[in-house]
Design a protein that fits this description.
Largest sheet: 7 strands, antiparallel
Mean pLDDT: 81
Distance between the termini: 41 Å
Number of helices: 17
Helix content: 25-40%
Strand content: 15-25%
Structural class: alpha+beta
Low-confidence stretches: 145-154, 319-326, 496-515
Length: 633
């Protein structure tokens, strides 16, 4: 057997997005004046008053869904930024009617009572805004000046608007779909989707019985990376599992009447078993003369399945079991993680062939990653030694030019408060009996450089429809940004056994289980988003799990608290001391700061139930230095 050849470079599905790569791609953009954003804010305020929920927002997704049906699938609408981007030009009259319908429906008017000959002021302002066809390559600019045809100006990254990152994949996906992807003698027809990705629509992966199916999906995302001058087009691929019925489906993939149009990805409204197309979307399309669209077809299937269930008709279920329904023009996406006979991974061969296909069509400039097989001494530590070290915190604070680290501890049960106190005492070498923090009073932890402040906020942390709202923490002075102070939030979250049990079983077996908090009532998700909007990094810790093996002396290390505090510090930028140890010696002819350091972590998941096998998870992360300080390349 011949010895394997050693390759000099690694293959990565990441490419420099240069003006040449975009090849004249354009979008039709309407940038609205401030009067439009002001009128939308007023509409949003009126909608909050009608539904009597301060966190509610005027459903602009209704307008996006309707416009996708009218324009072929590609629409990006951001009411707060005041812009609308489409791949195809949009008629002024259609846009005026759509906004008039949305405005009136949001305010509770009946569709038949809306007079399209009397448009609202918001609709008039929107239609009066002149559309402009924008060349996306023009937005690959840098603060220092113009770019060259092949790349942006060396040394600085482009300063493109958010809508550029959301729309750049539209044209690239169409170019990749124009040519058949040939893999192992088989021709794969990729179809673009409305999110700017690709789907192998006609070649699903099925189980042996042909009753379960998954679709290979390719996603294109544009992002900037540290120390890289050009934006990076990151390509990923996965298998999307298709559900046999519409029950519990949050997302649906639907084929449009014309095969040249993209596959539309539709978010369903509602919660529970039966989810629907938003009523306002259907009403808007009906008034605009579109009684037949992908949204109507999806809703008709929802109603057909619901009627069959009400009649006790098993014919539809038998048809779904045979696999014929799942491969039609409407394909609900399997949302839960219970057992499914087709996996989510696509395999390395798929990724290599995808890289070859992209190279043949787009001829992009890949990121060059030179590999060196020499391993460094980054040894795994015992779990008892994994806790963050005070010296690491001080060293990282100095490197980031911060004078102080403030840990804001949010709790609502005294048990969690005590766990947090013992965790902090363990890290900083203090006696937990000497720590009894009063509400809102900072407690020094390390020579004035680190402090913790505790706040009891049950309204913010307990599951419910009002959980995680900014008003519940607006009174906390420690959640205010201060110069030279780094702030991290450590919060309690309630573990819900019923919710975990529900996620672990298929919908057909869930009839008698207690329902956990829904997506709009889960305090952790709502609180994390609120804290992120305020600009704070957060880490949540759940109820303590009982140790499987108890120590003879009765003392148990609270690994959940220790590792949670470690994750919070990592998210704040506190660098592990072991990284310093491997960045001293040269690697071959290269200095330690002249190469990209790739760390690989291999972990075995716990065995579950009767399954004696365990999945192996491999995670890799890369730390790359700039060639010159403060300059990207």
């Amino acid at each position: 057997m011949p010895a394997p050849t050693t390759r000099a470079c690694l293959d990565v599905l990441a490419y420099r997005c240069t003006p040449t790569l975009l090849d004249g791609a354009t979008v039709h953009l309407r940038q609205f004046p401030t009067s439009v954003t002001s009128l939308w804010t007023l509409l949003d305020r009126q909608y909050k008053d009608i539904v009597k929920r301060e966190e509610a927002q005027a459903p602009h997704s209704v307008l996006t869904g309707a416009l996708r049906c009218l324009t072929g699938g590609y629409v990006f609408f951001d009411p707060k930024q005041g812009l609308l981007a489409t791949r195809r030009p949009l008629d002024d009259d259609t846009l005026r009617d759509a906004f008039t319908l949305l405005h009136s429906l949001v305010l509770g008017h009946h569709p038949d009572d809306i007079d399209l000959n009397r448009p609202t002021p918001l609709a008039e302002r929107v239609a009066e805004t002149m559309p402009q066809e924008r060349l996306l390559a023009d937005y690959l600019i840098t603060p220092d000046g113009p770019q060259t045809p092949d790349s942006s100006t060396a040394g600085r990254q482009p300063d493109a608007a958010n809508w550029v990152y959301s729309t750049v994949a539209w044209d690239l996906a169409h170019r990749l779909a124009q040519r058949t992807w040939r893999v192992d003698g088989q021709d794969i027809a990729l179809r673009p989707d409305s999110s700017g990705g690709l789907i192998a629509w006609q070649q699903p992966w099925s189980n042996k019985a042909g009753t379960a199916h998954a679709l290979a999906r390719v996603r294109l995302a544009l992002k900037t990376l540290p120390n890289v001058a050009d934006p990076i087009l990151v390509v990923s691929s996965q298998a999307t599992r298709i559900s046999r019925t519409m029950a519990y489906a949050r997302t649906v993939l639907a084929e449009q009447a014309e095969t040249a149009l993209p596959i539309v990805e539709v978010e369903m409204a509602g919660r529970g078993r039966v989810r629907r197309i938003h009523r306002m979307s259907l009403q808007t399309l009906a008034r605009l003369g579109m009684d037949h669209s992908v949204l109507h077809n999806i809703q008709q299937r929802v109603e057909a399945e619901q009627n069959a269930d009400a009649r006790g008709d098993n014919e539809s279920q038998d048809e779904a079991e045979a696999g014929t329904v799942g491969l039609g023009p409407i394909r609900p996406v399997q949302g839960k993680t219970f057992s499914f006979p087709v996996g989510r991974g696509v395999g390395m061969h798929h990724l290599r062939e995808l890289d070859r296909h992209i190279g043949q069509i787009l001829a992009p400039t890949p990121l060059t990653v030179v590999q060196d097989s020499r391993a460094r001494g980054f040894k795994q530590l015992p779990q008892a030694e994994l806790s963050v070290q005070p010296g690491d915190i001080i060293r990282s604070l100095d490197a980031m030019n911060y004078q102080h680290l403030r840990l804001v501890c949010l709790w609502y049960r005294d048990e969690m408060r005590q766990r947090m106190i013992h965790g902090l005492a363990s890290v900083f070498g203090l006696d937990p009996q000497t720590i009894d923090p009063a509400e809102g009073i900072p407690v020094p932890l390390d020579a004035g450089r680190v402090s913790a402040v505790f706040h009891c906020v049950p309204d913010f942390l307990v599951h419910g429809p009002t959980a995680g709202q900014e008003t519940a923490v607006a009174h906390i002075p420690s959640l205010k940004k201060e110069p030279a102070t780094l702030v991290g939030v450590w919060a309690e979250t309630e573990f819900d056994a019923a919710a975990e049990e529900e996620d672990a079983m298929p919908p057909a077996d869930r009839a008698g289980t207690a329902s956990g908090p829904g997506p709009d009532e889960d305090a952790k998700h709502q609180a994390r988003r609120t804290l992120a909007r305020l600009g704070f990094v957060s880490q949540f810790t759940a109820d303590r799990k009982e140790a499987k093996r108890k120590k003879p002396n009765g003392k148990q290390t609270d690994h959940q608290v220790i590792l949670s505090l470690l994750d919070l510090c990592r998210s704040l930028g506190i660098i592990d001391r072991r990284i310093d140890q491997v960045m001293v010696d040269a690697i071959g002819p290269h200095a330690a700061d002249q190469v990209a350091h790739c760390g690989i972590h291999v972990r075995r998941q716990s065995r579950q139930g009767k399954d004696r096998t365990a999945k192996i998870c491999v995670t890799a992360s890369v730390l790359r230095f700039p060639r010159c300080a403060g300059v990207a390349d």
